[in-house]
From TrEMBL:
Annotated protein name in UniProt: Tol-Pal system protein TolB
Highest taxon of source: Bacteria
Keywords: Cell cycle, Cell division, Periplasm, Signal
Organism this protein belongs to: Massilia cellulosiltytica
Task of the protein: Part of the Tol-Pal system, which plays a role in outer membrane invagination during cell division and is important for maintaining outer membrane integrity.
Length: 421
């Protein structure tokens, strides 16, 4: 089990990350039965700092769900449109809109989603946004298109966090960015490793582990106020923070009593209590979607496997049985799917299991550190290839794959943020 301990606390430091390059998204694979959608340029969108229609188009293409058709013209949301002509061109839906600069410096962004088959309007939005939020508005519109055409909430306006390192400067950064890697902001940085970021359910805080005190200590960074709180600085290792669904507590892995075990603490660092009590190593806790159970990794059966137990502690139930090395459990937001990393055939792969049936699927090879999108349709993970570590995204059916990379250095330790209210 020393090998597992090394993987969880040391191997994460082997793949560094670059400090300043924006992420580049590469799409490799598309879903089946794509929905054909035509996206027109928005009327007068050149007045805004971002081309809204281009953001929408890129989001929809990246999802793998849509076949995006270029309307090859600018069409205002107020225009009279020949929907039959767009239907004849193969589009089942059409996105149109406009942008207007307001006297106060903001931009009025209007959009409509039209059904070319039923010759009807499916949705519309109109928002006044600052120049800084123009890109976010494009993501929000793409979210609306995704939801209206699939019935599932879109995740384009959500955020992600990950760790970047400049190998030359030995500088580690905890970065927050849009789901497409744009709009990077540094939430924390230092010369010692940063690992295991985890979003609070309301999207205002990130818990993480820093080695700045020459040992792993758990912090919570408030992204709104900038305030940082020490949540766990106990004797030994403090690692693997994971938020409860209501945001009031964190599950942790602490070695303060010897072997690493699962503990729960209030979000302000008070009320620490032990949950697991085994002779082995229990680590990597994750709350179930209802907050009543905790999934975790343990070697109590001889090798690392995933278990489940009540938040009150007690008897644990083994969840994974295929393969001798299963770690890093993650539960989908609806509680129906478990994702984890399994070492089989000499490499680490991302697997997903339907918890009701027990049926599992291999989604990606060369994967570590999975994280579900808030709608449960995608999983982000770290992967190494071409001499670099990058982030990648795969759909839960395995059909859509993306890679988010930088031109120099590496990025890893992804965590996908929640829906923002």
């Amino acid at each position: 089990m020393k090998k597992l301990h090394t993987l969880l606390f040391s191997a994460t430091l082997l793949m560094g990350v670059a400090a300043h390059a924006q992420l580049k998204v590469e799409i490799a694979g598309v879903g089946s039965n794509q929905i054909p959608v035509a996206v027109a340029a928005f009327a007068d969108e050149s007045v805004a700092p971002e081309q809204v229609s281009a953001i929408i188009r890129a989001d929809l293409e990246r999802s793998g769900v849509f076949k995006v058709i270029d309307a090859r013209q600018a069409i205002s949301d107020t225009a009279n449109i020949d929907l039959a002509a767009f239907k004849a061109s193969g589009a089942d839906a059409l996105v149109v809109g406009s942008v207007q600069r307001l006297a106060d410096g903001r931009f009025q962004v209007r959009y409509k989603l039209l059904d070319t088959v039923k010759q009807s309007q499916l949705s519309q939005l109109s928002d006044a946004v600052t120049a800084r939020n123009t890109r976010l508005e494009g993501h929000r519109i793409a979210d609306d298109v995704y939801e209206k055409l699939t019935g599932v909430r879109g995740i384009f306006s959500t955020r992600i966090t990950y760790v970047k390192q400049d190998p030359a400067a030995r500088d580690y950064k905890l970065v927050v960015a849009d789901a497409d890697g744009e709009g990077e902001q540094v939430a924390a940085h230092g010369r010692e490793p940063i690992i295991s970021p985890s979003w609070s359910p309301d999207g205002t805080k990130v818990a993480y582990v820093s080695f700045e005190l020459r040992k792993p200590v758990i912090y919570v960074q408030n992204l709104v106020t900038g305030q940082r709180t020490v949540v766990a600085n106990e004797k030994g290792n403090n690692s693997a923070p994971a938020w409860s669904p209501d945001g009031t507590k964190l599950a942790l892995a602490l070695s303060k009593t010897g072997n690493t075990q699962i503990w729960i603490v209030n979000a302000d660092g008070s009320g620490l209590r032990r949950v697991s009590n085994s002779n082995g190593i229990d680590t990597e806790p994750q709350f179930s979607h209802d907050g009543q159970s905790i999934y975790f990794t343990s070697d109590r059966s001889g090798g690392p496997q995933i278990y489940k137990m009540s938040v009150s502690g007690g008897q644990a139930t083994r969840v994974t049985f295929n393969g001798n090395y299963n770690i890093s459990p993650r539960v989908s937001p609806d509680g129906k799917t478990l994702a984890w990393i399994s070492q089989r055939d000499g490499g680490f792969s991302l697997y997903a299991m339907d918890l009701a049936s027990g049926q599992e699927q291999r989604l990606a090879d060369g994967a570590t550190e999975p994280s579900f999108s808030p709608n449960g349709k995608y999983i982000m993970y770290a992967t190494k290839g071409g001499g670099r570590t990058a982030l990648a995204v795969v759909s839960v059916d395995g059909r859509v794959k993306q890679r988010l990379s930088t031109q120099a250095g590496n990025i890893r330790e992804p965590s996908w943020g929640p829906f923002m209210k």
